Amino acid sequence: MSAGTLDTATYAHLLAQVRDAGLLRRRHGYYAVVITANLLAFAGAWVGFAFLGDSWWQLLIAALLAVLFAQLAFVGHDAGHKQIFRTRRPNDAVGVVHGGLVGMSYQWWVHGHNRHHANPNHEEHDPDLDISALAFTAGQASGKRGLLRWMAKHQALLFFPLITLEGLNLHVSGVGAVWRGETRARRLEGALLSAHIAGYLTAVFIVLSPGVAVLFIVVHQALWGVYMGCAFAPNHKGMPTVTGDPPDFLRRQVLTSRNIRGGRLTDFVLGGLNYQIEHHLFPNMPRPHLRRAQPIVEEFCREHGIPYTQTGLLDSYRQVLGHLHRLGAPLRTATST
C-alpha cells in the first residue's frame, strides 16, 4: 500500500469513528434556537437604541451590537460549511441573510474561506496569510518596504490596534466584491448590503447627535473587529506554515491548527472555533458536536503520532504575539545596526 493510500485510509478510519458516533447528523433544533435567540437579541438591541435616544449610554448599545454582529457572523460561518442543512441552497439562504444583517458579503467570504480550508497556512495558497499590514512568515517580513516594513518591525504591538479595522475590512471587501460582480447572487447581496448601509447610517444619525453618532459607529465597528480578530487569530497564527506540496489531508489540517481549551462559555464566545482541529477535519460537522469530537480526534492523533496542539485562550494570544514579534526581530536588528 502506498503512503498516499495509507494516509487516506487513516483519515477514513477517523471519519468512520465520528460518523458512527452520530457527530455528522444535522442539529436543526440547536440552530433554530440559536438563530431565534440571536435575531431577538439583535432586534431588542435596536429597540433599546431607539428608546435610549441621544445619550452617551448608547456606547453600551454599540458594544452589545459588536457582540451580536459576531454571533450572527458565526452562524453565517456555519451556514457556509453546510453545518445547518445538508444541501447548499438553504444554508446559503441563511448565510446571505445573516451577511446582510451585519453588512458583509456572505458569498465573497465563503469563497475566500474555502480556499483557506483547502490549504491552511500554505504560504502560496492560503488567503488568510496574505494580509499586507502583517507578516506571517520570514519571507513576507523580509519583503516588506516603506511603511509596511516599519509596521512589520512592530507588528506584535500593532496587532490589536490593527484588528479594530477588521470589521471595516469585512464591509469594504464584501461591497467591493459585489460591485465587481465576483459573487453569486450579486443583485440580492447588493440589495441587502445597500439596505444595511442605508438603514444603519440613517438610524444612527437620526437618533444621535453627530458627535455621538460618529463615536457610536467607531466603537461598534472597532469592537466587532476586535471580537472577530480575537476569535480567528488563535486558530492558525504562529502554527507551522507550508510551502510546495502540502502533506496529506489529515496532517495538513491538524499540524497547522490550534485548539483552545475551555468550557461552554468559551464555546459560545468563540462560536465553536476553539475546536479548530476538529472543524478543519470535518468542516460540515454541526457546531455543538465539535466538543464531543475533540477527545476522539485527540486520542486518534496520539495513537498515530500526530502532534495535536491545544492551549488556553490567553496563552494562544501570547503565542500569536510572540510569533509576530520574532518575525519582526530581524527587521529591528537591521535598523539598529
Task: Give the helix/strand layout.
Blueprint: H1 3-20, H2 28-52, H3 58-80, H4 88-102, H5 106-118, H6 138-142, H7 146-153, H8 155-163, H9 166-179, H10 186-207, H11 210-232, H12 249-255, E1 259-260, H13 264-269, H14 276-281, H15 290-303, E2 310-311, H16 313-336
Parallel strand pairs: 1-2
State the secondary-structure class.
mainly alpha
SSE run = HHHHHHHHHHHHEHHHEH
Low-confidence stretches: none
Q: How many strands?
A: 2
Calculate Rg over CA atoms: 21 Å
Tell me roughly what share of residues is in helical segments. Answer: 55-70%
pLDDT averaged residue by residue? 95
Q: Number of DSSP helices?
A: 16
3D architecture notes:
InterPro entries: FA_desaturase_dom, Fatty_acid_desaturase. Keywords: Membrane, Transmembrane, Transmembrane helix. This is Fatty acid desaturase. GO terms for molecular function: oxidoreductase activity, acting on paired donors, with oxidation of a pair of donors resulting in the reduction of molecular oxygen to two molecules of water. A two-stranded parallel ribbon has the order 1-2. The chain has one domain (about 5-335). It is an all-alpha fold. It has helices at about 5-20, 30-50, 60-80, 90-100, 105-120, 140, 145-155, 155-165, 165-180, 185-205, 210-230, 250-255, 265-270, 275-280, 290-305, 315-335, and strands at about 260, 310.
